[in-house]
Amino acid sequence: MDSAIMEREPSGPISLDERMRELEVSLITWALKASHGNKSRAAALLQMKRSTFGDRIKHCGLDRANGHEYRADEGAAPL
User: How far is CA 51 from the centre of its chain?
Assistant: First the structure.
């Protein structure tokens, strides 16, 4: 987590839900990059089932984000 956020005095309300979503998106993106788009490996990096990882990708909108689509087959990199 960004320690700078925790060190300073908040200037207003902080949405826990939004911060958690940002963290989830960051971790999923990192795992996909680290695994070269291999969703099974990315899921393993995050210690979750492949099906759960796929659900999280959809929930965060990463299946269509940034113009990248990830192939359904296990060893594929982003298109």
Answer: 14
**pLDDT tens, the chain, 79 aa long:** 455 556 667 788 989 999 999 999 999 999 999 999 999 999 999 999 999 999 999 999 888 755 454 544 444 444 3
Cα gap 76→52, rounded to integer Å:
18
State how far Cα 2 lies from the chain centre: 16
d(CA 71, CA 25): 18
Tokens for 79, please give them. 């298109």
Alpha-carbon distance of 5 to 1, in angstroms, equals: 8
